[in-house]
């Protein structure tokens, strides 16, 4: 079925979000029906939330993206750049991608603290209250998802928050949306940053809006430079798995609380700037390695 084969990129983007909304409706309907069989109690439990989030990821992101690709006359594996490559430097790229994520953390944390410190003017107090209510609701959902002290709770979170989210969101945002935006604006940079903006916006967590844009752009450039969606999927998974792991083992640790919300001090600002500088350098190394160019020394 090639119904969308001759459509312009803008039209495909519109259909992508129409499918996304339809998938959200289907996921909500499925969850509501399932919840009814358990006297509307299952979605109040951690495992109910985990399974529900997995269903939402599949219906809202994965299926719409794959459907659009197939209806556009492409093979999803090829279009999404998921074919296994025989590049001898691929392992090096994964190591560099992990280092990029690790090095970026201080800068991302600094952006998060700055983002949370933003106060809107009085005439936007209603908007600010709405944003805070959304943030509180999202945080309550996250806290419920991360509840549980057993190994099975931990593995469940790794599966649903790590694997499901990484695959579904990267297929949707980087694999399809970013590629369409790049074609629409005839610029990879535009595709990366506009896609990252939409990626952050759709998470509906406005006090993490700026750092999530940067994370989305990082994932976007990993895709552009490597030509493989596996790299952003890997980094997305590692980021989510890292959060799940720290929360599981160190949630009551004061040092962990300090890492999550450190005060903005002069030293922290310096560390953030160093983190950004190293991040830019590592991306240059990654790009050169991905394109098999010689990395200059000095």
Explain how this protein is built.
This protein has 298 residues and is mainly α. The protein has eleven helices and no strands. The chain has helices spanning 9-37, 46-71, 76-79, 90-117, 125-145, 151-185, 188-201, 209-226, 230-250, 254-260, 266-290. Helix 4 (90-117) packs across helix 9, helix 6 (151-185) packs across helix 7 (188-201) and helix 7 runs antiparallel to helix 8. The protein is globular. The N and C termini lie far apart (54 Å). Residues 294-298 have low confidence and may be disordered.
Summarize the structure.
The protein has 298 residues and is an all-alpha fold. It is built from eleven helices and no strands. α4 runs antiparallel to α8.
Topology of this structure?
Layout: H1 9-37, H2 46-71, H3 76-79, H4 90-117, H5 125-145, H6 151-185, H7 188-201, H8 209-226, H9 230-250, H10 254-260, H11 266-290
Helix pairs in contact: 1-2, 1-6, 2-6, 4-8, 4-9, 4-11, 6-7, 6-9, 7-8, 8-9, 8-11
Q: Care to count the β-strands?
A: 0
Structural class estimated from helices and strands: mainly alpha
Helix percent reads over 70%
Give the radius of gyration. 20 Å
Query: Could you spell the SSE succession in H and E letters?
Result: HHHHHHHHHHH
Distance linking N and C termini:
54 Å
Number of helices: 11
